[in-house]
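The protein record filed here:
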Amino acid sequence: MPSPRRILALWFPRLGAERALRHLRLAEPGPFATVATHGAAQVLASLSAGASGEGLQVGQALRDAQAICPGLVTRAADPVGEAGFLDALRRWAGKVSPWVAAQEDDTLVIDLSGCAHLFGGEAGVVALLDQDCADMGLSLRIGLADTVGAAWALAHYAGARAGSTRSGDAIDQEARATRSRARKRRHWTRGGDAPPAGRALSTIPVERIAPPGQTRQALAPLPVAALRLPADTLDGLSRVGLRRIDDLAGLPRAALARRFGLEVGRRLDQALGREPEPVSPVAPDLVCAVRLTLPEPIGLREDLEAGIDRLLPPLGARLAKAGRGARRIRLELLRCDHTRQSFDLGLARPSADPARLRPLLFRKLDEADAGFGIDVIRLEAVQTEPVHAVQHSGHVEAARGAQSAQDSTALDDLIGTLGARIGLEAITRWHPADSHIPEKTASIQAAAWSAPHAGDWPQMHAPRPLTLFRPEPVQAPDQAIPPTRFRWRGQDFKLDNACGPERLAPEWWLDDPNWRSGVRDYWRVETSVGQRLWLYYAHGAGLSSGWFCQGRFA
């Protein structure tokens, strides 16, 4: 019985180039490509139809491409913009089904089950999407099948020939006795693919829509690359002559897994529907962003500040309506040459108040580079948090709360201002901790992601030194407790008076390397030269016993 589940795959093979052409608005673009930087080399990232017609390929070095096609027009690739454009296409594809998922290879996967009849059947859905993409100037390849893997394979490889990784021109790799025969091969002596068994694959008619229940027949002539396998696995399969999916379908799984790993069998089962592969649509995000498109490019700081002042009130209104506050703000400046500059800044507390966001954004303008002019200013709250309503109280409590809130807001604004310059992670605060171990009585936490300690600092049952450091060995020649004379940091000291001992035991439920010396007896000692130190005698456990100094009093 045919499966009622139908999956539609939309692949945009020229997404980057065609997105850039939409911005350029060229009447006759000619050969066009976007360029990405890989290490120290510039390579072609996406090609227009004209560039592909000139024989250029994705991944080709820019110098080689310009030598082949001197009239090639290029622009820098924009991965962030392309990801946003694909996300916009995902929302557009929601017109035919609510279950739409985006993949990394410029592909949209749509669960069309139960939706096709609303558009006149599957052929009507395909015709509608084809027409929409033609109107937008986008190249589209469609695959429709019972599974995600099969639909992806048809969209990317329908009509492709299963090739060989070995070129017939590499006659120098042949043994001398077979070189003469290699030169006489008819089909692949000029670098073509090895002839497959039976008729040539190019003569096999392949449709991009697999009828329900006929997934295996539609996938059989496709190359094994349609199974979304890694490149090294594809090379290994090609070396042993496994070039088509039909060649893999009849092989024993155990031998296939031993030779090439479990991924081959898993991808094959997903494509054939033996292993489920759900479509996971992206949950709708709360987008709190505003933008200002300018009639003429600007570059003065005063103009940028005026633009930000116009954007902050509507952004704050959107956040307040959603009951959220911005924790991280992104300022984007789009230049007239289609380049952009963005700044991210964080807040110590989520807020939707424009008065608190304005000074932080203005500080980032010192780093702005207008270039040939800025024609779009965009503000986005990329990270938001709920802001809970405050319960109203009486006059006295309200006055106290207002004063406390004012003090807290001032501190948060100071943390945000400093964080915009040195980073929020560099600003920390101390919090009391519940431990009798001296070095664990307080913890250091990030000020932007922690609340200040309420109330007074907990008092210790015994005084603690002003400066606490790692234990340092003390040389004590006599056996007195505490020693009357000792040597520490290369200096000799004479004991004047002492107070103690205060016995502290290690936390037995933890294996702390700093406390393997066992139980400690702490003494507050004062030397003849006025030094007030914190000494302890370790009774010994995992380490030997002895005297140590761990702190200094004021």
Q: What stands out?
A: DSSP finds 15 helices and 19 strands in the chain. The two ends are 86 Å apart (CA to CA).
